[in-house]
Design a protein that fits this description.
Bound molecules: the ligand N[C@@H](CCC[C@H](N)C(=O)O)C(=O)O
CATH class of the largest domain: Alpha Beta
Order of helices and strands: HEEHEEEHEEEEEHEEEHEEEE
Structural class: alpha+beta
Strand content: 35-45%
Shape: globular
Number of strands: 17
Helix content: 10-25%
Largest sheet: 17 strands, mixed
CATH topology of the largest domain: Diaminopimelate Epimerase, Chain A, domain 1
Distance between the termini: 35 Å
CATH architecture of the largest domain: Roll
Oligomer: single chain
Amino acid sequence: MSTNQNTPRPPCSPLSFVKMHGLGNDFVIIDSRGRDAQITPALAKSIGDRNRGVGFDQLAEIRSSDSADVDLDFWNNDGSRAGACGNATRCVARLLMDETLADSITIRTERGLLLAKRTENNEVSVNMGHPILDWAQIPLSHEVDVEHLPLTGDPVAVGMGNPHAVFFVDDITAIDLAVQGSAVEHDPIFPERTNVEFAEIRSRSDIRMRVWERGSGITLACGSGACATLVAASLRGLTDKKVKMEVDGGTLTLDWRNDGVWMTGPTQRVFTASFDTSFLEPIS
Ligand SMILES: N[C@@H](CCC[C@H](N)C(=O)O)C(=O)O
C-alpha cells in the first residue's frame, strides 16, 4: 500500500472570496461578517502571492459593525496592514450595494466612517475624508531632507488614513517607478514606510499619476494616492480642487470638497471562488 495515499490530510477549511478590481488595482474580498476575523499577516502574504496563492494588491476583510453598515480591514500583499484603501472601499461598496440594492452605504475603516454612493452611470464615489496635513500625525518626520533621495523636488506629505509622499515631475516617462518608488518607500525618513506618487500636471484639471504602493509595489491605480495627489497639487497651487486623474489602469475623478475628498471611478467584479487554506504554503 502506498504511504502517500495514507498520509493524513488536514481537514478542509474552505475560505470563499470575491475577486474585484478598480482600474486594475485588484483585490481579494473576504466576508467575515458574523464570525471572527480570519486574516493574519502570514495568511494575507500567502494568499497574496501571485505564483503560489491567489494574488492581489490588497485583501479587504469585511466585518460586522456596530456603527456603520460594515467595518473593513485592509492588508497589503507583503502581509502588512493598510489604514486606508480607496479603490477596495469602492469595490466593497459596489458589492454590498448590489447585494442590498441600496444606492449608498457607510463603511468604517481605520481612517473613520466613509460614505460611498452609486453614481448615475453605475460608478462608485467614496468620500475619503479630510486629508491630514500635520506631518506628525501621518506619521512622517518633521525634518525631511529630500537631498539624499534619488529625486529632485520636494515631496508633499499627505495622510489619507495612510501615508503618501507626492512628487511633482516634468516628465513622468522619465521616472523609474520600481527603483525610485522603492527607494522612497524604504527611506529611513519614513518610519512607517510610505506610498509614493509621481505626478505630471497636464492642466489645472488634468493630472497624470503613477504610483508605487507601500507593501504592494507598482499597482495600476491607488485611490488614496489619487486623493493625496489632488490635495498636494491643489495646495501647491498647481490645479483646481476638482480634476480628472489618469493612472496606469484608467481615469478617476477627484473632488476636494468641504466635507472631504471624493473619488469616483469604475469597479469590476471578476469572479467568486473558494480555496482550501490548508493548501497555502507559508511564505517567509
Ligand atoms: N490601493 C490602495 C491603497 C493601499 C494601501 C497602501 N498600499 C498602504 O500601505 O497604505 C488605494 O486604492 O487607496
